[in-house]
């Protein structure tokens, strides 16, 4: 009975030791000289006809099936209640046996890549989605697989089939491939709701498949798009957005000096059916230099919270709150120098905690990464701070080796006995290289419900605390304490 106050005190210290995310200025409303664009206006034509640098005020209401190609420096501001919706309503239904059918559904978006789908969702690379009262339905491959919660689009007959009765309900079918196409530089997009676009896999409802320079994307809610919500490029800033429930990922980026700050990136990667071990979840960036991911709330994504994969260098992850992402929290893969500091993690990696996968912080075949000041709470079958080496070849800045990484002064709380909750280093390629790779774990504090458990990975096996320290020579100044019951 006396241990509970101690546990509360411990967890209070654990939470309060992490800096609060920085406050962001509210994006300004429509400029006084902005061109007003009411629902029903052709926004693409308006942007094409206006000068470079023109400002637009997209007025309150639903603007359907708009795909805008901005010119350089154009600014698009939304009034409160302004919605860009890439879907059209489907209203004319007839009963056909146990199903309902709508004719004339000729939407067929771009399939950019070979299918990399989970077995139960074989049409993941078909970007068409159907929404029933704002809930995305699962796209099945034939009528015989049609059950409640799914739809079948017969491209040959242009018929849409539902198992759910659509009577009195709102049914929408995504059609438009993007809200804003990339290409022009210095574009601003602010205060809009952007939803239900038929964006292909690896393409965004905002930015499409062109990561563009110096975009400011601020204060938007980008949701329920099939592929990615937002794609940005060099010197771009994503500030204070809500990137929610997009089918493939919330965001992606390529380029130099990109900033993600103060965004909520949540619930992404669940409905498109893409295998998230290939790509999916909160956000993924590649080929970046100087990427900063600061003060974001990354939670409930199917996949990683944020993933830097392929030749990223000079990355900073700082002050993020990372919770309940199925494959792990932050992953730095086949990349180079990074700093991961002062972030808070809870409940990540529950969907893939095999070996040392599913880490709150996961360093894969990457080097020169500093990991410090992070607070990690492992609440279930996830792992802590994991360094992994495999045979991945060579990249733009040298071989993809797990070396020269420093993991210091972090706190890891392992709440449940009998769960993995492992940290450490492990390899399935060139074990001697991992052992002499100058990787450091030291000064970290561990609080374990079962201190005798095998919570530490070393090269090719899992060890208890004392055996790990002897075998590896690591954590000379680390501490392990029993978590109060």
UniProtKB/TrEMBL annotation:
Residues 1-25 form the signal peptide. It comes from Falsiroseomonas frigidaquae. Residues 214-366 form the Right handed beta helix domain. This is Right-handed parallel beta-helix repeat-containing protein. The keyword Signal applies. InterPro entries: Beta_helix, PbH1, Pectin_lyas_fold, Pectin_lyase_fold/virulence. Keywords: Signal. It comes from the Bacteria.
């Amino acid at each position: 009975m006396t241990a509970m106050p101690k546990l509360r005190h411990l967890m209070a210290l654990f939470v309060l030791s992490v800096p609060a995310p920085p406050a962001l200025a509210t994006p300004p409303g429509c400029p006084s000289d902005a061109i007003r664009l009411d629902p029903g206006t052709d926004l693409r034509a308006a942007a094409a006809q206006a000068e470079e640098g023109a400002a637009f005020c997209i007025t309150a209401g639903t603007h359907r099936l708009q795909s805008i190609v901005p010119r350089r420096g154009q600014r698009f501001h939304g009034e409160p209640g302004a919605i860009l919706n890439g879907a059209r309503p489907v209203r004319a239904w007839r009963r056909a046996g146990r199903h309902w059918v709508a004719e004339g559904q000729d939407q067929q978006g771009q399939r950019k890549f070979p299918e990399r789908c989970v077995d139960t969702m074989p049409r993941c690379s078909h970007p068409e989605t159907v929404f029933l009262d704002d809930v995305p339905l699962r796209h099945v491959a034939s009528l015989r697989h049609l059950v409640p919660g799914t739809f079948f689009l017969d491209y040959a007959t242009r018929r849409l089939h539902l198992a759910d009765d659509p009577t009195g309900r709102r049914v929408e079918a995504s059609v438009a491939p993007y809200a804003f196409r990339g290409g022009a530089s210095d574009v601003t997009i602010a205060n809009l709701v952007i939803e239900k676009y038929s964006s292909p896999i690896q393409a965004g409802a905002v930015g499409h498949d062109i990561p563009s320079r110096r975009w400011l994307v601020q204060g938007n809610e980008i949701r329920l798009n099939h592929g990615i919500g937002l794609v940005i490029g060099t010197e771009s800033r994503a500030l204070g957005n809500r990137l929610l429930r997009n089918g493939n990922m919330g965001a992606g980026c390529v380029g130099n000096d990109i900033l993600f700050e103060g965004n909520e990136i949540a619930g992404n990667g669940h409905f498109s059916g893409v295998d998230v071990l290939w790509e999916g979840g909160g956000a993924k960036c590649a080929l970046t230099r100087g990427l900063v991911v600061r003060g974001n709330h990354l939670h409930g994504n199917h996949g990683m919270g944020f993933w830097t994969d392929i030749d990223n260098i000079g990355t900073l992850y700082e002050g993020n709150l990372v919770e309940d992402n199925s494959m792990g929290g932050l992953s730095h893969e086949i990349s180079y120098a990074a700093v991961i500091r002062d972030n808070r993690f809870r409940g990540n990696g529950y969907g893939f905690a095999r070996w040392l996968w599913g880490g709150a912080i996961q360093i894969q075949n990457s080097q020169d990464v500093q990991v410090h000041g992070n607070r990690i709470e492992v609440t279930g079958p996830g792992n802590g701070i994991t360094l992994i080496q495999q045979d991945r070849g060579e990249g733009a800045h040298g071989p993809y080796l797990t070396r020269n990484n420093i993991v210091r002064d972090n706190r890891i709380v392992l709440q449940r006995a009998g769960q993995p909750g492992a940290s450490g280093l492990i390899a399935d390629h060139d074990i001697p290289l991992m052992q002499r790779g100058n990787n450091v774990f030291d000064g970290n504090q561990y609080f374990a419900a079962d201190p005798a458990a095998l919570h530490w990975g070393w090269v090719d096996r899992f060890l208890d605390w004392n055996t790990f320290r002897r075998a590896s020579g690591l954590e000379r100044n680390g501490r392990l304490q029993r978590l109060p019951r």
